[in-house]
Design a protein that fits this description.
By secondary structure, the chain is an alpha+beta fold. The chain is built from twelve helices and 39 strands.
């Protein structure tokens, strides 16, 4: 049988010059999304990838069936109480998408969520009195792609505003459903980023739209029953570095407009008790000062909670009057502590919940409120050495409980209610893993790798217990999948994955390299992996890989690296800088042509990204620095490990052209390249929609990874 022949993209060099530096790009012509030649080339790439991986078809199907068999397909989330109802989501066996439902609150004093019958079937109500809100499977019918951008119940709980995207370009259409008649209102709002926010009266919704560069720049007010053409422009952010968004405080009293760049924040607020005053500026932007607003009642007085970095990089929690207030008058509640990064705060009638991290671990901190102010301050404790905890699903200002999520790399996602009055932690649900799964069958560790500059980089790793045991009782290396991201202060905290079990149960380990550029060890960790320190992200990942090899966890031949988006840039960089360390690399929606992108201010998100990567168009030093590590620009005539690049045709964040060009250059330059490009032609940045499609998608990647690990 003749071996498949990879597509060859013709070289059509285009020369550009910046700061006296000449740059030749042979594959920029692949950017023309409307070109039949480009589409044909991408389809040829898909055909080649399919042919090259045909031998894995059986394994892919097996992995898909394993994921399916471990998942309870007909299920529902833990109900969340909001006003007069308990809200929850349902999934159904055989259906790609789920549904949202609700039941009435029976006892206003009871905050224990209702529990479904064990034998509820697909076509039966999960709870007595169940009311269907949205059937996503029905909404998705006839579309290759479907995404719910958001849904929001009106304050009187009679109307539901929801937004949908059927292309993958993250431009949503909003519709409003009358829950009594099940009829859609005539209101249709198009081109929305995400969902909408109701005003307290339930007469208007607010939404945001994007400009030509896909930057959220405008906030609009839509009065029910009117045309979108008549909507009022409430706020327009003209600084190209800043995004805008709008939300409502948990107390329902304030609407807040947030303007934010990567380094600077500014908030405006509208008091529902004084709507005629309009939106007022709380504190004007000061370069480098980030802050957020939340409404609380402390010692009987209304206060804004201000989480800010004006006094230190790891943030302080302060209180301020309900009025425009300069930062010099913010009164600290939790002073800045360089050992603890404060990340968020939730306000309730009787307590505050502070999201923070210390020593690489997430924490929840409770501040109980009494007549004189804060009456107690403590952490919700967990015993595991490596875990992730966070609060969510807490919409009611008056609730005495805190709904929180907890997971480790071996313990499935778990939902707890913490009762602040009794300090009792109650497990409401642990995501079921069918087939007799036992977390005790897996071992988790926190390792530390020494970076080139001596920095200690944490690694979280999980493996099936006993998988490293060799003949004679010693331990030996196993195949390892090493995941990394390292940008935007986003922390890749330990998490559980059903799909990952298909790796672990075949004898592989999974590890997360918590490299600089993320936020795992505070703001310093982020600052040391961005802008002119970006190389630290790459060298940290390489140090983690070397540590796994040097300590006997892995061998280069079966060590596979994976990352997506900015983590895809990481994959491209380490492929150039340490190709000998890896037996394979998976780059998802990879930002690998970042120099081209950052040189073009008309492309989506470029201007807003200057504070993350720098502006190479304006600064020759930045140009040289990015040019020194950009994956596409540094492809060399060396032997690379096998590479699987995965992307989406309609991605608006990292355009498909970046991995397409990268693969073309690898094929033309590398020594005996083994490179595959897989393109979802009806998807966006997050990949395909629908859970079964997503499982097939992940099964494809896992089968390729197992093949590289010699476990296929």
């Amino acid at each position: 049988m003749t071996a498949p022949v990879p597509p060859v993209a013709p070289a059509r060099p285009v020369t550009t010059e910046h700061h006296g530096r000449t740059r030749v790009d042979a594959y920029e012509w692949l950017r023309d999304k409307e070109s039949p030649e480009v589409v044909a080339h991408l389809e040829a790439e898909n055909a080649y990838t399919e042919a090259r991986t045909e031998h894995l078809a059986g394994l892919r199907q097996t992995i898909f069936e394993e994921i399916k068999a471990r998942t309870r397909e007909t299920d529902l989330s833990v109900p969340t109480r909001n006003r007069g109802h308990w809200y929850y989501a349902r999934s159904f066996e055989g259906r790609e998408y789920g549904a949202s439902c609700r039941v009435p609150v029976i006892d206003p004093e009871d905050w224990s969520p209702p529990v479904p019958a064990e034998d509820a079937s697909v076509d039966e109500p999960a709870l007595p009195g169940e009311e269907l809100l949205l059937d996503l499977n029905q909404l998705a019918e006839g579309h290759d792609f479907f995404s719910l951008g958001g849904s929001s119940i009106s304050p009187d709980e009679t109307l539901l505003a929801y937004s949908t995207d059927v292309k993958g370009d993250e431009r949503y259409t909003v519709r409003i459903l009358d829950l009594g008649t099940r009829e859609l209102l005539p209101d249709v709002i198009e081109g929305v980023l995400g969902g909408v926010t109701w005003d307290r009266a339930g007469e208007n919704v607010y939404y945001s739209t994007v400009d030509e560069s896909w930057r959220s720049d405008k906030i609009w007010r839509h009065a029910l029953g009117t045309s979108q053409d008549d909507d009022e422009l409430v706020h327009h952010e003209t600084d190209g570095r800043f995004f805008v968004g709008l939300g409502r405080t948990r107390s329902d009293r304030f609407l807040v407009i947030a303007s934010g760049s990567k380094t600077t924040s500014e908030y405006r607020f509208l008091d529902a008790d004084e709507p005629d005053a309009g939106f007022r500026l709380f504190c004007k932007r000061q370069e480098g000062v980030e802050y957020s607003l939340e409404h609380a009642v402390i010692a009987g007085q209304d206060r804004f909670l201000v989480l800010h970095n004006a006094t230190g990089p790891d943030f302080e929690l302060a209180a301020a009057p309900i009025a425009p207030t300069p930062s010099s008058q913010w009164q600290p509640l939790i002073a800045h502590d360089p050992a603890t990064r404060l990340e968020d705060v939730d306000a309730f009638a009787g307590h505050l919940v502070v999201h923070q991290r210390s020593q690489g671990l997430t924490q929840l901190r409770i501040l109980e409120l009494g007549e004189a102010g804060v009456s107690d301050d403590y952490l919700v404790e967990f015993d595991a050495p490596v875990y992730t905890v966070g609060s969510g699903g807490n919409p009611s200002f008056i609730q005495p409980t805190v709904r929180l999520g907890y997971t480790t790399m071996a313990v499935p996602a778990s939902i707890y209610d913490y009762d602040v009055r009794t300090r009792e932690l109650v497990l409401r649900r642990r995501t079921p893993v069918l087939g007799g799964y036992d977390p005790a069958d897996y071992e988790e560790h926190r390792l530390w790798a020494s970076a080139d500059d001596g920095e200690q980089v944490p690694i979280s790793i999980v493996a099936r217990r006993g998988s490293r045991e060799g003949v004679g009782g010693g331990t030996g290396p196993v195949p390892v999948l090493l995941y990394g991201y390292g940008a935007y202060e986003a922390s890749i905290d330990p998490y559980f994955s059903v799909a990952r079990l298909s790796l672990l149960d075949r004898g592989a380990a999974f590890a997360i390299a918590h490299v600089r550029g993320g936020g795992e060890l505070g703001r310093r960790w982020y600052d040391d992996g961005k802008m002119m320190h970006k190389q630290n992200t790459f060298s940290d990942f390489i140090a983690c890989a070397r540590h796994l090899v040097d300590t006997g966890w892995a061998t280069p031949e079966t060590l596979v690296a994976e990352g997506a988006s900015a983590g895809g840039l990481l994959m491209g960089a380490v492929a150039n800088q340490a190709p000998e360390l890896f037996g394979g690399i998976v780059a998802g929606v990879p930002f690998v042509d970042n120099l081209t992108t950052m040189l073009d201010a008309t492309l989506p998100l470029t201007v807003t990204e200057y504070d993350e990567w720098g502006n190479p168009e304006a600064d020759p030093e930045v140009y040289d620095y990015i040019a020194g590590y950009a994956p596409y620009d540094n492809v060399a005539a060396v032997r690379y490990p096998p590479i699987l690049a995965e992307t989406s045709f309609n991605d608006t964040r990292v355009l498909y052209v970046e991995p397409a060009k990268w693969v073309a250059r690898l094929r033309a330059t590398a020594v005996e390249p083994d490179v595959l490009l897989r393109i979802e032609m009806a998807a966006g940045h997050g990949g395909v929609s629908g859970r079964y499609k997503a499982w097939h998608d992940r099964a494809f990647s896992l089968a390729w990874i197992l093949d590289r690990m010699r476990l296929a």
